[in-house]
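Quick illustration for those who missed Monday's session on complexes.
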Amino acid sequence: MKVYEKAPAKINLSLDVLYKREDGFHEVEMVMTMVDLADRIEMQELPRDTVIISSQAGYIPLDEKNLAFQAAKLIKERYDVRQGVYIHLDKHIPVAAGLAGGSSDAAATLRGLNRLWRLNIPADELQRLGAELGSDVPFCVTGGTAVARGRGEKLEPIESPPQCWVVLAKPPINVSTAEVYGKLNVRSIRRRPSTERVVEAIRLKRFDLLCQELGNVLEGVTMELYPEVRQLKECMLRMGAEGVLMSGSGPTVFGLVSKEAKVARIYNGLRGFCKDVYAVRLLT
Ligand code: ATP
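Prediction with adenosine-5'-triphosphate bound:
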């Protein structure tokens, strides 16, 4: 038996950090949605009780450091599954990009193994398991569009944003999420996004308002460390993207574009100095 799952990338339409908690994590409030740029995960039963990971991408760990591997181990242990599985990750989402590629792979593995082994685990329980693997995994389990609070695990699903094009560009640098959060001084944040206004713009299907309200408090920190992220944002705005923001802790910057005619121009313009550029639709 074999099952397949799609693991889409997420973008943050807003990301606010409220305070640093006593457990060391940051209390966040963010609006997340998914885009049609996805890894494809194939899961095949193995006669031996083992977990094997492979991938065509040469740059991700294939051992216990891989989040899909950790997801398979977790589900096996909690549900006492004695079967093995071969997992192939067909990676398309750039790694360490702020697009939650690893988290989405882990979530897709949880969904896929739930089907493969007929475990009938309800979605909320899969989300709880996901929270043990990483803060973005619970959102990736169900996808859609949601406000995430807590560490990212408290989810409030909301309706989809107005449909549009999303141009994503990742400069060739690796950003450490831990370093960015470490350098963030919560008390000195001057401009915060308004979660409420982002949600309202989505509810009203007002693309123009949504573009105005995009905001990410980590953007300044990453831009300070890597000025090329700021240049990329300015460049996208100049080329005519209507709303531009860095996703997660970066370095990927995305631009929202309502008219298809503009997409090719922005895409081609960015390709001039950035290898990782994608033009996709929102997953609504
Ligand atoms: P987030 O936005 O959740 O911080 P990200 O998009 O910045 O995630 P990922 O692509 O998830 O980052 O990769 C972060 C790290 O996780 C990388 O250093 C990578 O080696 C490791 N990793 C573990 N499993 C995977 C996986 N299945 N795919 C990609 N990276 C993985």
